[in-house]
């Protein structure tokens, strides 16, 4: 009798372990045993291999390009958590925003998309960045939105691993590398997209150098220039030839064609009509250079621009809900106004 009881207890113990694993499995999105809004950032990040986006302004309504970036990642990496951290968001406002903003509702409805408040002091705990954060005065920083984003992405990837992407990056196919930096051009790394496993030494060294060489007045000093100078300390960087990637110290330095087939001086080409659209067969994702878009060029339904075609192909829900329907609503509003 005692043996039967022991067998039963073992059975329930194993069953409990399997239940816990189901919460942490990459497949759990299909049969999540609890509503995902009950999960904490740590629980989701501890699943590993997250795709991480950051919004370090106080903005609460994700614009169409941000929505497209997150949606395209969710579609490309369906077995991985896709997380958007928003500085302006609090735990109290999350549920209200879900019904207030179209993009928020759209993204929240995707099974592998999670939207959390960005709490920087928590993010920087147990990293070299915490002391810097406690000493810096954001109101006096010239580039605080960018600098705080540069710091946050390093800390999150160090702690949990995965891939960081800027919110103007449209995913088109999975990135096969685990430890990688993205070349913006030969011998120069961006920090707009990169991926590493948790606790990778390169990221720790980047955080230490971030603090040691901190100068918030120089745009990019804590971002792409940081990544480039740290990569140069361990690798002999040479020019790219063709579409090959470089590799050094088990870090892949990916060809500019992977993410930057249209370089930043030509960023406006995304908002032009092409006689023949490129197929981007050598690319994993496309950086649309929103930082350069000072005139706020946007995707317009029926414009037939390259950007519109990318939205249709890789973030069709964003295109339908935030581009087509928004324009239809505006048209209806103006018609109603004319009849008054």
Automatic annotation (TrEMBL):
InterPro entries: A1-4-GlycosylTfrase_dom, Glycosyltransf_32, GlycoTrfase_DXD_sugar-bd_CS, Nucleotide-diphossugar_trans. It comes from the Eukaryota. GO terms for biological process: epithelial cell proliferation; negative regulation of epithelial cell proliferation; protein O-linked glycosylation. Signal peptide: none annotated. It is a single-pass type II membrane protein. Its main location: Golgi. SUPFAM superfamilies: Nucleotide-diphospho-sugar transferases (SSF53448). The keyword Glycosyltransferase applies. Residues 196-320 form the Alpha 1,4-glycosyltransferase domain. Pfam families: Gb3_synth, Gly_transf_sug. It is found in: Golgi apparatus membrane. Keywords: Glycosyltransferase, Golgi apparatus, Membrane, Transferase. GO terms for cellular component: Golgi membrane. GO terms for molecular function: acetylglucosaminyltransferase activity. Belongs to the glycosyltransferase 32 family. This is Alpha-1,4-N-acetylglucosaminyltransferase. It comes from Strigops habroptila (Kakapo). The gene is A4GNT.
